[in-house]
Recover the amino acids of this structure.
């Protein structure tokens, strides 16, 4: 069982209440490989991994299944966003079927490994295949306003009509807000 040390997620995420879909994966459990997205290959064209660069990552669940409508599945993913020393989380929103993650890459591992690690660990934690192959990344330029990007990210539930006030949506955070 893993305890989330992030202050926004103080509960144990390895235990879910009865009736929840979150299960603890065992080391011997095998996850089915997701079906490849025919366009995922094009997402890698021109991708560069630059140490200390700030990236906006967007990744979707396999077949856009709303896995993160389950509170405990979303909290498990959020805890993992804060565990990799090679990815400093600046802002995020976990939507029912996708993730927007503003992060600063570390010095050692490339972006592809950091994202792959998050996807693998979250699938194991939740106990089933989660993610579509590939992800979209945007390296932010120096002139881009990070706070404005963070506000745009966390406002996704408002634009999607999930809530009428961002404070009513539980699965977001930002270092600036």
């Amino acid at each position: 069982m893993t305890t989330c040390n992030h202050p926004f997620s103080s509960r144990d995420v390895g235990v879910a209440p009865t009736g929840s879909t979150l299960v603890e994966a065992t080391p011997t459990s095998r996850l089915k490989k997701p079906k490849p997205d025919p366009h995922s290959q094009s997402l890698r064209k021109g991708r560069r991994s630059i140490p200390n660069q700030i990236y906006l990552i967007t990744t979707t669940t396999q077949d856009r299944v709303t896995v993160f409508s389950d509170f405990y599945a979303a909290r498990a993913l959020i805890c993992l966003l804060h565990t990799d020393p090679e990815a400093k989380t600046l802002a995020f929103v976990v939507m029912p079927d996708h993730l927007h993650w503003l992060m600063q890459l570390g010095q050692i591992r490339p972006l592809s490994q950091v994202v792959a690690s998050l996807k693998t660990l979250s699938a194991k934690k939740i106990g089933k295949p989660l993610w579509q192959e590939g992800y979209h990344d945007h390296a932010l330029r120096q002139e881009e306003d990070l706070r404005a990007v963070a506000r745009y990210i966390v406002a996704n539930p408002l634009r999607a009509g999930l809530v009428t006030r961002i404070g009513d949506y539980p699965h977001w955070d930002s270092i600036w807000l």
User: Anything to note?
Assistant: Strands lie at 54-60, 87-94, 98-105, 136-139, 172-174. The longest strand covers residues 87-94. Residues 111-126 form the longest helix (16 residues). Confidence is low (pLDDT under 50) at residues 7-32, 37-44.
